[in-house]
Structure formats: structure tokens, C-alpha cells
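Exercise 3.2. Students should predict the tertiary structure of the chain below and write it as C-alpha cells, then compare their answer with the key that follows.

Predict this chain's 3D structure.
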Amino acid sequence: MTQSQSSYSPSKPHRKRDWLPFWLILPTVVVLLAIQVYPALYTVWLSVHERKPAGWTYVGVDNFRRLLNMGLFKESIGHTIIFLVGYASLTMLLGFIVAMLLNRKMRLSGFYVTLLFIPWIIADLLTGIVFRLLVFPDYGIFSGILQNPALFPPDGISILTAARPKPWFGDFPFPPSPAMIYLILASAWRALPFITLLLLASMQTIPQEVLESSRIDGANGWQIVRHIMIPLMLPTLVVALFSLTLSGMNGIGMVFSLTGGGPGTSTEVLSMLLYAIGWRQLYFGRAAALALLIAVINWLLITGTLRFTRLQERSIS
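Answer key:
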């Protein structure tokens, strides 16, 4: 009896030590299951069901079929493409220019970086409200300028209520409405600090000897940017573009508070359409189907970005 107890006692503390990592990560696992795994599985379940007077009814792929047949869904895809292209390209261009200015080691550069970071700490909803107040027809700061017929003939322009111009390419919503252009500008202003700091950090890793030798060889500023800086910064540029694309695809705060999808449906992007279907029309099954489609688009963007990054790393190595 004593011999069996002595052979058993050393293994008990050992088993406790083996279970210790599990108990340490258990709270994190529970939180992830509660806020990520369960909502994802519930969304899949909702996408194949529909709420009827008798209760939830299984409808299969009918929610996806109805969604794909909606004219507003196709229109929202066009609005999303226009918004993402304008938002990402404008933010990348301005971020690159501002990063180059800050990279010149001018006086008070730290103070300028601090001021530049202020828009990033403001919530999307507050940013949209502020930009809406700037152009509100009755008392906006810029409404008097925008509604001046001498500057914007024949009757001035009201950004929040102006109709979208006639499309140039069939049903594709281009050119965009003034509200969409204003939404792109506001979103770019909001995202500019993060992209600028990301590109600035990448610029500061470029060896100064490489830049100086290129100047000695007779390269001008544009040639240095095109043939030296951009290739060396390409991984960071891809990450910045990827971040902008995902945030533009999934963000709703700016659209909700600035335009609300209007005027009409001229700024109804996919994320706003998801909110409208789910919480305004209360078609939860159809909204879940749209959420899954957006998730597939996000997955394709992530996969494409990672594959492109691996190809670039192989080419550099």
C-alpha cells in the first residue's frame, strides 16, 4: 500500500502542471467563442432561415437568390468600388506626399506628427457629424460658399442633397454624386495619419547612401521615388493599401453619420446596405447572407494580399 502511494504521488503534481497552460488561456478562449465563433455560426444559420409568423423557417439559398436579384445590391457594389478606389488612392497619395515632407528632418517635425495624428483618434461617427455640419445647407460653415451661384453655377451646390449625375457607363454609378466625393474626402482625412506614419516609418529605413549615390549619378526626384523608394517600400505600400481596403469595405460609421446612404441611394455602399436590410427592414436572414458575401470578399482580399506579399518577398530575395 505504501509503495503504491509513493509511486502515485509524484504524478499528481505533474498532471496539474500539464493542465496549467489550459487553465491560463481558458478565459481568452471563452471570450473568443462568445464574441467571434458563436456570432459567425449564428450568421451562417440565419442566412438559410427566414422569419415568418410561424417562426423561423428554413429557406436554403433563397436569401442569397433574393439578395443577388436586388437592383440596390448591384448598385451598392458599384458605389463600393468607386468609394474604395477613390478613398484608397487619395489616402495613399496624400500619405506618401506628407510622409516625404516629414522625412526631410525639418524643425518641429515631432510637433507636426502629433498634430497629424489627431484625426486618427477621433471616432468615425464624430468625424462624420463634424463634416456634415460643415456643409449643412442652412448653417454649415461652407454652405454659403457652396451655394453661391457665381462660384457654382447656375444655382450653387448642396452636397448633402444634390442628385447623382447621369451615369456614363450603363448602370454603373459613375460619375459619383457630390455626396460620394465628399464622403471620400472625409474618409481620407480620417485615415491619413495612420497611413502617413506607416509610410514615414518605411521611408526612414531606406539607407541614405543609396539615395545619395542615385543623386550623384544624376537621378532627379521623380526617378528616385519611382525606381528606388517605391520598390524598397513596396511591402509597406501593400500593407497600407490592404488596411485601407478592408477598413473601407467594412466601415459604416462615416457613411452612417455623414450621408446615411443618401441622398437617395447615391452613397449606399455594401456596409450601409447591410445595416439597412438588417435594422431598418428587419430582414435578418437576407442581412446575414449579405454579411457572408462581404466576409468572402474580405477573405479574397486577405488571400490575394498575402500571396502578392509572398511573391514580392521571393523576388527580392
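Discussion points: Confidence is low (pLDDT under 50) at residues 4-8. The first strand starts at residue 49 and ends at 52.
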